[in-house]
Automatic annotation (TrEMBL):
EC number annotated for this UniProt entry: 6.5.1.1
Protein name, entry field: Non-homologous end-joining DNA ligase
Group of enzyme by EC: ligase
Listed GO MF terms: DNA ligase (ATP) activity
This protein's encoding gene: ligD
Highest taxon listed in the record's lineage: Bacteria
Keywords: Ligase
The DNA ligase D polymerase domain, residue ranges: 28-280
Length: 294
């Protein structure tokens, strides 16, 4: 039987705690759960009130991956859910990770956490903008940093405050807190910015997904602003060979990046960073710097 533990008055069965999920570092499932428990304060703030999608990898990053938006089978009755619109006028229910107990139940599934740019009460009304910078080899996070600095300046010209985090994979995410705005308007604005970036940095940027155009360039993906799309949540672990984390970074770190490895953070790096910086993406939560879309 799986060991039982109590979290915030909820009894949970946590399974296979000694199972090695990341063979490259020997990281076990128990260590992954410990990471989420100790990072819960910051992670939950970014998950709160956003319907969560899960990229599950129960046998580690080398095993099968599967993406699910529906409530996983066997979810406890106390896990909160929200009705979410789907295409064709249909609806479905998705998990809301609102507390530590739900976070630990979800983490026990071994999953990346992904969320939309809108909150449960206002589906399709975004309170943030995201630009996903994806490098095409041989480009790396270093080239993403150059593009991110351009984007920061361009967004500032429109009165928008930008923040950055690593994707936890190869690239960067540039995020902007917004006053509530229809997702289609945010998407249209994000596309205009991506097109401008390509026009201003033609040797470095593409704004289309065509693979043939991407080697050596950074794809500025604006599509994650669509109401139907989701983005890796800050502080989520990723299903990568190493236990990398989608990590908030300072603009000084972005500006000074000279090697991709400088912006690769593992789960053991996060607690010291939180102690040093606090949550660098805090303004995305309290919206004290949210601005209207130009």
């Amino acid at each position: 039987m799986s060991p039982m533990t109590e979290v915030e008055g909820r009894r949970l069965a946590l399974s296979n705690l000694d199972k090695v999920l990341y063979p490259s570092t020997g990281t076990t499932k128990g260590e992954v759960l410990h990471y989420y428990a100790t990072t819960a304060g910051s992670l939950l703030a970014h998950l709160y009130n956003r319907p969560v999608s899960f990229l599950r990898y129960p046998n580690g990053p080398d095993g099968q991956h599967f993406f699910t938006k529906n409530v996983p089978p066997g979810a406890p009755s106390w896990v909160r859910t929200a009705e979410v619109p789907r295409s064709g006028g249909k609806t479905a229910r998705q998990v809301l990770v609102q507390d530590v107990a739900t976070l630990m139940w979800a983490a026990n599934l071994v999953a990346e956490f992904h969320a939309p740019q809108w909150q449960a009460e206002t589906p399709g009304v975004a309170d943030r903008l995201v630009l996903d910078l994806d490098p095409g080899a041989p480009a790396t996070a270093v080239e993403c940093c150059t593009v991110a600095m351009w984007l920061r300046e361009r967004l500032a010209a429109d009165g928008l405050h930008a923040y950055a985090k690593t994707s936890g994979s190869k690239g960067l995410h540039v995020l902007v807190p917004l006053e509530p705005t229809p997702s289609e308007d945010v998407s249209a604005y994000a596309k205009r910015i991506a097109v401008e970036a390509e026009a201003d940095l033609p040797a470095l940027v593409v704004h289309t997904m065509a693979r043939a155009k991407r080697p050596g360039k950074v794809f500025v993906d604006y599509s994650q602003n669509s109401a139907a799309k989701t983005t890796a949540t800050p502080y989520t672990l990723r299903a990568r060979p190493l236990p990398t984390v989608s990590t908030p970074v300072t603009w000084d770190e972005v500006r000074d990046c000279g090697a991709a490895e400088e912006l690769e953070f593992l789960m053991d790096d996060i607690a010291p960073r939180l102690e040093r910086y606090g949550d660098l993406l805090g303004p995305l939560i309290n919206l004290n710097r949210a601005r209207p879309l130009p």
